[in-house]
Design goal:
It is built from five helices and 17 strands. The protein has 233 residues and is mainly beta. The radius of gyration is 21 Å and the shape is elongated. It has one domain. Strand 4 and strand 5 form a beta hairpin. Strands 3, 6, 9, 10, 11, 13, 14, 15, 16 and 17 form a ten-stranded mixed sheet that branches.
Length: 233
């Protein structure tokens, strides 16, 4: 068993390390991830490349935007490119249509908790602070969600990088303390009402550092305005 000693209150307390992951049924299972980000376009860019109808619906030439955003040199375009748009990264993590699991790090064959992320109770940070989930008598892990870029008033160029790899972290508990799923909070981001990713986790109020390796499988580009999300390449 993977143990170490941690000093608590002047005493050395034997600790056990646990692994948490998002993906399949085991820590080594394949995980699908995404990175999403966006930058707001300037008034000059909007006036040059976009039109709006009487109801505020946006329109533009998809081919022109695709060509301009493919430029490698900033001298060849006045729109965001891959080199500049990633400055607006809003989040990287595992998609929520997967499982979250916990096991002892030295026993990856035996998950002690596993559930579909989207089957858990969803709460805002404020609702968690007000212990709404306690009133709901949640008997498992819960999700804390945060929304970004929902129905924006401006015009935003958004990228979505699709990736495959791993996503996990570790935390420690005293040897005499059993893992309690009710103390686990999964942190997610909902971006542009379209992309939902796990970006972190907490156990008993303590932050768990989640990380992983991934390979890019493709990048989609969108224009986001109000309730419209339009893919152009």
């Amino acid at each position: 068993m993977l143990n170490h000693l941690e000093c608590l209150g002047g005493f050395l307390l034997p600790m056990t390390e646990y692994t948490i992951w998002v993906g399949g049924e085991h820590p080594w299972s394949r995980t699908y991830l995404g990175e999403i980000g966006a930058v707001e376009l300037t008034e000059e860019q909007v006036e040059k490349y976009f039109t709006f109808d009487d109801e505020g619906e946006i329109d533009f030439d998809h081919d022109v935007l695709a060509e301009k955003s493919d430029c490698w040199s900033g001298e060849d375009t006045d729109l965001p490119t891959w080199d500049t748009i990633t400055d607006g990264c809003m989040g990287w993590g595992a998609y929520t249509d997967q499982c979250v699991g916990v096991c002892k790090t030295d026993d990856e064959d035996t998950p002690i908790f596993i559930a579909e992320v989207e089957s858990l109770g969803y709460y805002t940070n404020q609702e968690i602070l007000e212990e709404v989930h306690v009133e709901d008598e949640q008997d498992s892990a819960i999700v804390e969600y945060d929304e970004e870029l929902c129905s924006p008033s401006g015009v935003w160029m958004l990228y979505h990088s699709i990736e495959k790899g791993s996503y996990q972290g570790t935390f420690n508990l005293p040897d005499d303390e059993e893992f309690d799923p009710k103390k686990l909070v999964i942190e997610i981001q909902q971006i542009a009402d379209a992309f939902t990713i796990v970006t972190g986790a907490r156990y008993n109020g303590e932050h768990i550092e989640m990380s992983g390796d991934s390979d890019g499988k493709g990048i989609d580009w969108y224009i986001c305005h109000s309730e419209q999300l339009i893919k152009f390449k």
